[in-house]
Amino acid sequence: MPLSTYLKVFPDPDRPGYRILFSTKCGATIAVGEELLQRAAAGMLTSGEEETLAHLGFWVTDPTAEQEEMRAFVDELNRQRTSASLTVILNLACNMDCVYCFEGEMKGSRFMAPETADRVVEMIERDYLAHGKDVELTFYGGEPLLSTNIIRSISRDLLSAAERRGCTYSFMLVTNGTLLTPAIVDELIPFGLVGAKVTLDGPRENHDRFRPLVGGGGSFDLIVENLRGVCDRINIQVGGNYSRDNYHLFPQLLDTLIARGLTPDRLARVKFDPITQTAGEFTPPEFTEGCCSPAEPWVVEASTFLREEILRRGFASRRTLPIFCMIELEGDFVITWDGKLYKCPVFIGFPDLAVGSVETGLNDYTESHAIGHWKNERCMACAYLPLCFGGCRFLRVAACGRVDGVECFESYLDMTIERFVMQDLKYLNR
Q1: 3-state class of 239 per DSSP?
Q2: Is 289 buried (19+), middle (13-18) or exposed (0-12) by CB count in 10 A?
Q3: Per-residue pLDDT tens digits for 226-240
Q4: Longest Cα–Cα distance in the chain
Q5: Less CB within 10 Å around the terminal CB: N or C of the chain?
Q6: Where in the chain is the domain with CATH 3.20.20.70?
Q7: Above 60 in pLDDT, residue 277?
Q8: What pTM does this model have?
Q9: CA-CA distance, 402 to 186, in Å (whole number)?
C-alpha cells in the first residue's frame, strides 16, 4: 500500500525529525516522524498505521484506482448534489464610479425586465425545485439594491414554490454596501436574504480613491457604518481588490474594522484578491477569486502576506481545501439581466460563451467550455489536482480568446501551499 498521489510533505518547523503531511484530496493534515515515512517507503508499516493513514487519505491500496476515483470526483459530486447556486445579474447600473469598473462601456440603464424575471422563476422551479433541489441565488449588478423590486418579486415566487416542493430558497447579495442599510436588510430578510459580500479596497484613503461615489465623494465611511448596522442580522463577507502598489495597506483596513466594532466574531469571512482585468474585457472583480495569474511573484507575496494578516487578527478565511471551477458543476449558472445563461460571471462579456437563455433553455457546452479538460495524464498524476482541477478558464480566454486547455497552477502552488498549510495549523486549528 503506497502513499497517496495527492499528498505534500513539509518539514515540521516546531519539531526536528518530524514531517507534516497534507492531503490535497481531503484537506487533512498530520505530523509524523521521519522514521515512520522511511518505514512507509519500505512497506513496513503496521496494520494499525496503514489503517489510520488510509482513513485520513494519505495511504491507498492502489494508486491507479485512486486516480480513477479522482477522475470521477466531479461527476460523483454532481450526481450527489441536492442544491444549486445561481448568480442573477439584475442590472448594469451603479451609484459608484470605481476606477477599475468591469462594465466599461456596457455600464448604464440595463435592468432586468419583469417578464425576464418571470422566466427566471419558471426555469428555476422547473429545473431545480421540481427535482427536489434547494436553491441559493446570488444577486449581483451593477448594484443589485437598485433593483429591490425584482429581488422581492423573484424571491416571493421562489419562496412559495420551494415551500410547495419541500425545498429551501435563500439568497445573498454582492453589493457595494452603500445601500445596505438596516432598513433594507430587515425588509429583505423575510424574502430569504441570508448574507452579503461587500468590497472595501483597503483603508479609507485608498478605498475612496478607487471606489468613489458617482459625482465624487468617498464611500468608505458610509459602507462601514452600514456594515456595523447589519452584521448581526445577516452574514457579512468583506472582500477587497488590491494591486501590486497598495496591497501592503490592507492590514490598516483590518485594524480599522476592529476599531469601529466590526470585530472577527461579527464578520463571516475576510478575503482579499488582486485586481484581475485585461483591457476591454468584462471581468467582475468580486468573482475573480482564484482567477489571478499565478506567474506574478508579487501575487505570491501579497496573497500569503494578506492571509497571514487576516488570520493573525482572528478573522475567518477559507481553509486550504479542494476547490474547482463552477463550470464543472452542472447546476450552477449565471443569468444576466437580459436572460442569457453563462457558466461563469467573468464570461458575461463574451457573447460566444453564452450557453443558452431562460427562454430557449440550455445548450451543450461540453466542448466550448472544455468540461473535464483536466482528465489528462499529467493532471491526474499531479499532487495539486484537487486544489486546481485544470485551473481557471478565464485565464485561457484572456490569453487566447477561448477555452482551449489547462491553465496550470503548479508553480504558484509550489510557492504558496506550504505557507498556507502552516497558516492553517497556526491559526485555524488552535
Answers
A1: strand
A2: middle
A3: 999 999 999 999 999
A4: 72
A5: C
A6: 83-312
A7: no
A8: 0.91
A9: 43
